Amino acid sequence: MASMLDITDLHVAVGEDAKPIIKGLNLSVPAGEVHAIMGPNGSGKSTLSYALTGRDGYDVTGGIGFDGADISEMEPEERAARGLYLSFQYPVEIPGVPTLTFLKEALNAQRKARGEDEMSAPDFMKHVRERAAKLDVSADMLKRPVNVGFSGGEKKRMEILQALVLEPRFLILDETDSGLDIDALKVVAEGVNALRSPDRGMLVITHYQRLLDYITPDRVHVMADGRIVASGGPELARELEAEGYDKYVRAA
Q1: Which domain of life is it from (predicted)?
Q2: Which of 14, 79, 144, 249 could join 84 in a cystine, given CB atoms 3.0 to 4.6 angstroms apart?
Q3: What CA–CA distance (Å, rounded) separates 169 from 164?
Q4: CATH for 3-251?
Q5: pTM of the prediction?
Q6: What are the sequence ranges of the domains in the chain?
Q7: Residues in the chain, pLDDT under 70
Q8: Helix 121-134 to helix 99-113 angle, to the nearest 10 degrees?
């Protein structure tokens, strides 16, 4: 099966002193699969997510292939229009911008970039309401400014709602489970599982096994010192939960 995301010998340096964070990482994720990346703090997990989505301030060398095209020089909005989506570990607040307005502008900007017609207002409202219902997102939350006054769990639900609305080809979930209680975790996981499909891939970045109890990955990769140092099936996540990362950190 051809890979949807192909990362080849990726190196990423950050800051004025160009500190190397990712040091020759290789990873392939086929369409239809969910891959998890686990690793201790400082291993480069969030840096990987930012490098893939084109964040400024990251010096990136190596190949980032997505759907057969090299996207490593593309702007973030170009990558988004191609269907790459990042769910942030710490979602930002956008005062003064109603959530519905934000979602409508984001969806239609992507449709326009792909040469598609904008979605009409009635169709958009139906599209959003159906998806909001899956995540217990109320009409009041949709009217409020983006993430302003939301709890941690509500912010994460809004991140997954954005993904359900935008229907990206590939999702990168950067520690979506951080700060969630067990009920919020279940709701978020249900939303993520609703996005699983044969023509969509996902990369789930997490410290802990508990998220993977609800989003079962096809493959688990261990990241340490800027590289993938081990890969396996879902049982690898359970081993990490029981034994920790020490042996992988020492090996790296």
Answers
A1: Bacteria
A2: 79
A3: 11
A4: 3.40.50.300
A5: 0.90
A6: 3-251
A7: 1-2
A8: 110
